[in-house]
Amino acid sequence: MTKSPIIPVILSGGSGTRLWPLSRAALPKQLLALGGEHTMIQETALRAGSVATQPPIVICSEAHRFLVAQQMQDVGISPSAIVLEPEGRNTAPAAAVAALLASEIDAAAIVVLLPSDHSISDRASFERTLNSAVMGAQAGFIVTFGIAPAGPETGYGYIEQGDAVDQLDGLFLVRRFVEKPDHQTARDYLSSGGYSWNGGMFVFRADILLQEFERHCPGVLAGARASLAQSKRDPEFIRLDDSSFGKIQDISLDYAIMEHTDKAAVVPCEIGWSDVGSWSALWSLGTKNIEQNVFYGDVHSHNTTGSYVHSQNMLTTLVGVKDLVVITTDDAVLVADKSHAQDVKFLVDGLKSAKRSEPFDHATVYRPWGSYRTVDSGVGYQVKQIVVNPGGRLSLQMHHKRAEHWVVVRGTARVTCDQNVFDLQENQSTYIPLGSKHRLENLGKTPLRLIEVQSGSYVGEDDIVRFDDIYGRAPAKK
């Protein structure tokens, strides 16, 4: 095993629209637990930790920064950096940024670049494959995982395997990368052998990848360097520069480098991989009952077979149906034929065109201090359930158009209202007049839960003036 540091880099982009209504822009699939104890990004970080010698680097969007940080903390992982992309620019810019950051630690650092939203059921095989890939990367190759095809899938790119690499067991040169084929071509690939699915996982030495960027895609590298050079760094986050990052070409690592480099290698593997790209994929991965159903939550059925049901916060029942996907959330219900589960993305596109909020936000909205859920609203009022995490502290703020009434139902609230600071216990309440500077805090060790009743001429989220905020959301003081 190499003495060079091994650094996992976890890519947490994308919105997972095929898994709507659970996965939404504000809380995409990689931040969800879709069948296990941990979320998908947590599972990815824990798997990579089996061979890593350095804490991971996580690359995510600005909007998800606090959720990502909290989820890493929840499984005892302290990333060496959480890099915030101003906008998604595909995998090549992210890989260039990753290589530049890794090279700050060691020019020959081994980077393990992993999507955060894949499922891998055979962890032992994954670790063996990763060890082989690390050895290949140390020898100067840019190594990708070649997933053993389970069928003539047309939704994935393919890798054609070339000659074996001497003295590196399990490693082969890449003869070519093939874009998503039609069904007959995919069948021919499987019949001929030597083809694998492109799983989008890469292992490389930082200096080698940077050299290949210089040769094949120097513009992306220049943009990545500029966005890092002008980034804003604090103990928690690296904020890439908006202007320079936004000018980088939107291109995948496959197109930018892998299809052109002479250093591409592949490790064919069977690791129980899935990109969890649809509800039918989750049905395939799930534990099935005797009727071949996969149920999560409060689900009851009669004469129902081959179905996937995920019920959130309500009883969901099915009678006399088969091969359905049924997803229930607080504010939306999806019913689909399992064979058409991939088409959910078209449904979401239609909701976006109709300017609906449901593709973007859940009924429960997460904030760095906790979460809130709107339970009722109408002209001139809104009622919310608010949860403040232990140590959570809302910004010192005021509203121009609404007043608020707070009722504590669990825990103890530290309240600031203008010059007054006091504690509220369970079943106690207070009134926050329109225009008052106020703040809510949880100094306890358990979540604080309260009901907030807003009243006024306008109750939108943009009627907030922040004066002080520990999460960096208040205007900079002059």
Task: Explain what this protein looks like in three dimensions.
It is a single chain. This protein is α/β, with parallel strands linked by helices. It has three domains: 6-274, Spore Coat Polysaccharide Biosynthesis Protein SpsA, Chain A (Alpha-Beta Complex), CATH 3.90.550; 279-353, no CATH class; 364-468, Jelly Rolls. Helices cover 23% and strands 33% of the residues. It is built from eleven helices and 30 strands. The chain has a six-stranded antiparallel sheet with strand order 20-21-22-29-24-27, with no helix packed on it. The chain has a five-stranded mixed beta barrel with strand order 6-9-7-8-12. A four-stranded mixed sheet has the order 14-16-18-19, covered by helices on one side. Helix 3 (91-105) crosses helix 6. The protein is globular and about 75 Å long.
CATH topology of the largest domain: Spore Coat Polysaccharide Biosynthesis Protein SpsA, Chain A
Rg over CA atoms, rounded to whole Å, is: 25 Å
Number of strands: 30
Strand count, sense and barrel status of the largest sheet are:
6 strands, antiparallel
Helix content: 10-25%
